[in-house]
Amino acid sequence: MSSSTLDYSLAGLSQSEFDLICEKLCREPNLLELAMFGVMWSEHCSYKNSRALLKTLPTGGNAILQGPGENAGIVDIGEGLAVVMKVESHNHPSAVEPYQGAATGVGGIIRDIFTMGARPIALLNSLRFGELDKSRTRYLFENVVKGIGDYGNCMGIPTVAGEIYFDDHYAGNPLVNAMCVGIMRHEEVKYARAKGVGNPVMLVGATTGRDGMGGAAFASVELTEQSLERKSAVQVGDPFMEKLLLEACIELFKTDAVIAIQDLGAAGLTSSCCEMASRGRSGIKIELSCVPRREEAMTPVEIMLSESQERMLVVVKRGREKEVGSIFEKWGLSGTVIGEVTDDGLFTVLERGKVVASLPARLLADDAPVYTRESTRPAYLESVGLFDLHEREDMNIKETLIALLARPTIAGKEWVYSQYDHMVRTSTVTVPGSDSAVLRIRGTDRAIALTIDGNGSYCYLDPFRGAAIAVAEAARNLVCSGARPLAITDGLNFGNPEKREIYWQFKETIAGLAAACNVLGTPVISGNVSFYNETETGAIFPTPIVGMVGVIEDISKVTESFFINEGDAILLLGENTHELGGSEYLRMLTGKTIGECPAIDLEREKKVQRLCLEAIERRLLNSAHDCSEGGLAVALSECCFGKGLGAKIELNDTLPIDALLFGEAQSRIVVSLDESKLGSLLGLAGEFGVPVQVLGRVDRSELKIDVCGREVLSVPVGELEARWKGAIECAMRS
Amino acid sequence: MVFPGSNCDLDAYHAVIEAGEEASYVWHMEKSLEGFDAVILPGGFSYGDYLRCGAIARFSPIMASVREMAESGRPVLGICNGFQILTEAGLLPGVLLRNRDLKFICKNVFLRVESTASPFTKALESRSVLKIPVAHGDGNYFVDGETLWSLEENGQVIFRYCSADGEVAPQFNPNGSVSNIAGVSNARGNVLGMMPHPERVCEEITGGTDGLLLFKSMISFLKGGMAGELVNS
């Protein structure tokens, strides 16, 4: 075995990848160059296993100002304003060191937003853990929430929405997906394209240390027992430093001295330099001895691979270094010139004047091989669709509903969001707890609505449908707040794509996302792929997460999910159908994710959403709430919480009672409205071709449900709400 | 006042504008507050809460002028981290410890107005109840028994955590503060520190206008000839 054979496998490259590098370079790379290829061609940086399929997603549209390919996507929200957004995973670091893993996940995504020139205005997150009966899960959950909270709170960016599911398929490999949303005027956009020969390249912010060494490569393999010892691959966050960096950058952008800017995320200096040069079709030359370090005797490999947080690379106009430096100085930060832009297409690294690496920037950044893997429909799908429930008719509805409301996945999440400052910047109009968060846009009558959604159980049973439902539900959440959905950012979390069954899940998921995005008119403007979410006990559920933004043109029309007036009529937009598969109810009864994933008719979905939006537009509705996990009974309960009202419901469907009350049929929205507007709504529903049914009336303090003339439930809302509200806190105390 | 790490400066600015007055940001490296009638130290995480909340910010150059403002009897309001800075600077008694349950907490709470002898509560009704949010990890107010007795005696306790009906009891105390104290003033009454965020509730659209009352009170105090009118001065 030659020495280089050993080297490339240590760098995480395959024989064929190593051969390709030698062929393109017409030589063998040296050790530093090999390490740089190792991180840049890792799955985490190169998307080599996902790129081919990601290209099939719709990414353009009239309102889209920037699709995938930059640090974040940009969508027009009118009046010359634009929203910048992106979601990113930090799963592996959070599995090993939950507090810092989650915190730096938040820090990284915030940097992606403000490097685009935008002011970050909101954070969201999507989390997955095992069941809370295990102490390890409680430890992970507690510290992930604390990590997210401490970082966002210190930054002064409100964490306004999120979602959490608990299932043991995530026990060893929790998911932490963080999303950030920023706002700017169209003309304020900044790009990460290095241009102009001789323009200085500055490294600003924190110093460079050995933390996070090889984090990108670490994220590109499965988790094992030994992973717990890989804490050195987890970065350490400093939100105060990032706050200074944010304010300094925003001040810097007001000058015209900046040519390009990019944050140092995965693969640190290596990725930021070669990506900026590749996007700008230029080259970059840096001198390692100029890089400010926090540790002694760092080798070139360590400096180039360090993932120390809160650092930015800025290309400024030649001659403006001093001005730029003084802005950073004001904020107590150092900005150091470490190199310059060239026109040779190379990323050249010098150490005290001696070239230690010289690689074509494009080859490193963009030309990793793209793999289309073999796929096979997983064998487990043959058996999961079947289930048999006995004695369903004489079940105790009240006990079942209470038990369902106390399931951590469904229960109120106040324990979580009260640890997040969700109000700072005083623009949060709808706080966590409703279908989506709403933020007013100062200086306009507009607002934006934000949500993040995904359901791994559905995707496990049918990744195509599950992914389509994730998009549909996200859009439904926005519509319930009165917002017109505009665009999505997707966080795709899967197992090892080199396994055929996992790749099949990925392929189906992409197809499902594409189908739903096309029908609902919400292109994908940014996103993140996280593979290798596996432990010795197997892969996670395929879990696509959809973060979505919508616009509300008239803020006075913002609608919430809670009933507000006693006596209002309650209606269901859409139809109750027999869908128990994949439901939280079935999981509660059987401990398993079984059955057939709920059906989704995207055209029907679109009609239901258009009806709801139009009804809000015409000020017909007093509340609107998406019917999702836990089904109709849970949705009705949630509508009652908050304002202390109740509801009297009469159902005449002939479905089995559990399917009717707890089934998770899609494309349903529970609305309430003044009796006098009933005719208008029914007329509108006719026009849109959407089936609707009157469910009952908003009542005082009790939830009563009759089915075909028989009372099946009568319970004080306070009793339901207490269990729903206290369940997570209770679980965390055990 | 903007310190490195302040993050409620924008909200405090808009609160004053909403109350009908002019406001501008002052960077902590400035040395003079000339031309200003009142000063607000906003919430946030000055210096990342390193060492101790507010412990580093108190050495900022501008703090000498804040002290002069306080001594001249003009209104000084410290909110959340601003409150912590004022205690660290010795302009207010007591300290703010970690919350009782060791978690950051962000939610609406109710406050009872205990004293109207401050520019910020002068126009409010004594014993009235305000709904104002808290958002902090270190808001557990503590003073020794003797100081507490003198604070009570002098009417320096301005706000207490209470129920929606104004009942002061341990279960309405979000962070473990001694005697449910949410806000205290100096002996003269013109310097107020409070953990809840009145600047966040100055518009109906963001959850209410109870906080606006404090800013309006401060403005009417300034327009009415200032410190001479404070009961305790």
What's this entry about, in short?
With 734 residues, chain A is of the alpha+beta class. Chain B has one domain (9-222): Class I glutamine amidotransferase (GATase) domain (Rossmann fold).
Low-confidence stretches of chain B: none
Number of discrete helical segments of chain A: 26
* Class of secondary structure makeup of chain A: alpha+beta
Q: Looking at this structure, what is the CATH superfamily of chain B? A: Class I glutamine amidotransferase (GATase) domain
Principal-axis shape of chain A: globular
Strand arrangement, major sheet of chain A: 8-10-7-11-9-12-13
Main sheet of chain A, how many strands, which sense, barrel? 7 strands, mixed
The count of β-strands of chain B is 9
Question: What is the beta-strand fraction of chain B?
Answer: 15-25%
What do you see in this structure?
The complex is a heterodimer of chains A (734) and B (233). Chain A is 36% helix and 25% strand. The model of chain A has no long low-confidence stretch (mean pLDDT 94). Chain A contains 26 helices and 28 strands. Chain A has a seven-stranded mixed beta sheet. Chain B has 233 residues and is an alpha+beta fold. Chain B has a single domain, classed as Class I glutamine amidotransferase (GATase) domain (Rossmann fold, 3-Layer(aba) Sandwich), CATH 3.40.50. In chain B, strand 1 (39-41), helix 2 (63-71) and strand 2 (76-79) form a beta-alpha-beta unit. The longest helix of chain B has 12 residues, at 212-223. Chain B is globular, with a radius of gyration of 16 Å.
